[in-house]
Amino acid sequence: MKKLGLLIIIAVHLFLLTGCWNSKDIQNMAYVTAVGLDFENGKFITFVQILNFSGLAKSESTVVGKNIPVWVGKGAGFTVTEAFNEIYATSQLRVFWGHVKAIVCTERFLKNAEKVKEAYDMLNRYREVRYNVLLYGTKESINDIFIQKSILNMSPIDSLLDAPFQVYSQRSFITPHEGLRIISEINEAGQSAMLPTISLDKQAWTEDKQAKSMFRIDGAFYYNHEKLLGWMSEHELEGFRWVQETLDRSSINIPDTDKPVAALVLIKPKARIIPVIRDGDVYYTINLKINAYVDEIVKDTSIQEMESMANQVIEDQIRKTYAIGLKKKIDVLQLGERLYRNYPKKWHELDKISNFNLDTNSLDKVNVKVKLQHTGKYKERAN
């Protein structure tokens, strides 16, 4: 009876073990944290940024500043699948895609919108890849982007590439975009899709006396009707930030000259774009309300004067960004999207004539109302 019981225990134990025979130890897998896409000589060029499990894990034994090695794999093929299979051929370990946080595309890849949609369609069909992956363009080498370390040599997944919202909460300028949003904007009538670009700033930081490059979101590519329209720099886009509903915190000098009297921080703008049809032409009014507080006082100035100067600075920035967009035939303020929502018949009528229907007179009024909520620990005179 004892022998029978022992045999039953052994049999059950062996049965349970069979369920684990196909499992993989988590430390023996290659974790893809970012994907790069390029297109050259009729072939897709794919890159993967690989971290070992020890580079992803958070534990009490993790040493801040310890150099975490980054591996970059590269493949090529006439389809995205073929290019990734080339990476599998030399990866040595099973590749896991569930930790992909960012996709970076080169400028020449982005010039072919069909290739962009093809690549993104393939990645989204793969069940391990999540839908909320961040999407960037770049003018840099993909390899240089993927070997870039974060400050203090922290893990690459703690960098601006994979975690941009930490920086955005302190300095809101160009909104990080998830891939699904960009693809939907490319397919959406009346809208120019915006793709933020990431670059390497090699001037701002040093480790002791050694220069250290750091990530910077330096501008954005724009698409319309599945065509790459061009690129606008961060400076050229400074007026666009005020019509972004997701803006958390951004600053300006007042006035915007080399002799400002104060620096203000502006938060949570509420913008409303109103299209008006007059004599067959479309004119747009932007009504913007935004709260602010004083971050720095250079010269004693009344609250009313500071609000008035802030109104003018923001209006000037919006109009300047609009004018630059006109030259590049980019509807950077997304005026056409509002016309499509409010007057779809008129939008279709204009779209049959041209894909771009804005001119110097289209942006009619820009009404800005800055409300200074407080001046910090110091009190300023009201008028």
UniProtKB/TrEMBL annotation:
Keywords: Germination, Lipoprotein, Membrane, Palmitate, Signal. Its main location: membrane. It holds the Pfam family Spore_GerAC. Residues 221-376 form the Spore germination GerAC-like C-terminal domain. It is found in: Membrane. Residues 22-199 form the Spore germination protein N-terminal domain. It is a lipid-anchor. PANTHER family: SPORE GERMINATION PROTEIN B3. Belongs to the GerABKC lipoprotein family. This is Ger(X)C family spore germination protein. The lineage of its organism: Bacteria, Bacillati, Bacillota, Bacilli, Bacillales.
